[in-house]
Amino acid sequence: MHQSSMAENCNKIQTVGEVNDVTSSEDEDEDDEDDEDEDLDEIKSDDENLASPFNEQNIVLVFDERKLFLQREHLIAVSPVFETMFSSKFPEGSMKEIPLPDKKHSHFVHFLRYLSPGFEDVLTEATVHHMLPLAEEYQTDDLKLRIEKFLIKGVLSQSDSITSVQIIVNIIEAEKYKLNGYLNACIDVASRKKKLTKNPKFEEISQSTQLKIGLKRIDEIDKIYSNASYRRSVKHNKFQMKDLGKHLKPYMQDN
Q1: Helix or strand or coil: residue 53?
Q2: CA 126 to CA 136: how far, in whole Å?
Q3: What end-to-end distance do the CA atoms of the chain give, in Å?
Q4: Quick one: 162 exposed, middle or buried, by C-beta within 10 A (0-12, 13-18, 19+)?
Q5: Among residues 58, 65, 139, 196, which one has the fewest Cβ atoms lying within 10 Å of its Cβ?
Q6: Which residues make Cβ contacts (< 8 Å) with residue 152, sequence separation at least 6?
């Protein structure tokens, strides 16, 4: 009887141990599953971020009879103006279609492509002057800086061939959008144009810029005469008018 009782107790202890082992194993499996779920959640989140450009569009910009289907979140990310527009404080916050009757569909497509990752569109003379007003209105400062660098490079590379009419148009553009670097480059080129003041559009330039153009011209010509006078004194009064004319030529352009 005593041996039978001991055997039963041993069997009970073994059974309890097996139950505990099973329970422990189940707990470990549950912990592993929780870890896997967390990993899957992270992967899912990363995938969603990567796939975000291909998500279903949830806002429509309307240009007369044409429409542009976009993601509200992307517009908010690239422009603080859109971020404000789509807030609850404005009617656009609850609208599915936003009319932009004063904008051109093609210009806005270029504008958004310049702002969006994954596109390698480069600025061109054909597009840059359409992009500048949009970059100003929607406060996309990085794009505006790219535009200014492009415009500076363009005006300096064409300084000899650019006409008085065109440089005046460029100056008005630089003043309107407060592009100081571009304006200074235009002033440098404008100071070399002999017929600049004869163009009626010259009066559309601010008086401050007109003064800077005049002073720049005087200063550069004065430097040329000063250098010529110095060389004349060094060479025992042998003054070469031919050399002086060569240096003055850039400031006597008829275009």
Answers
A1: helix
A2: 18
A3: 125
A4: buried
A5: 65
A6: 181, 182, 185
Q: Give the Cα separation of 194 and 52 in Å (integer).
A: 56
Say whether 193 sits in a helix, a strand or coil. Answer: strand
Could you give the 3-state DSSP secondary structure of residue 192?
Answer: coil
Q: What is the pLDDT of residue 140?
A: 97
Q: Average pLDDT in the 187-214 region? A: 91
pLDDT reading at 162 higher than 80 = yes
CB atoms within 10 A of CB 110: 20
Q: Which residue has the tokens 């270029």?
A: 110
Residues 143, 116 contacting (CB under 8 angstroms): no
The SS3 of residue 253 is strand
C-alpha 220/C-alpha 223 separation (Å) is 5
Closest residue by Cα to residue 151 from 131, 136, 134: 131
Q: pLDDT: is 185 or 47 the higher one?
A: 185
Q: Which residues contact 129 (CB under 8 A, 6 or more apart)?
A: 173
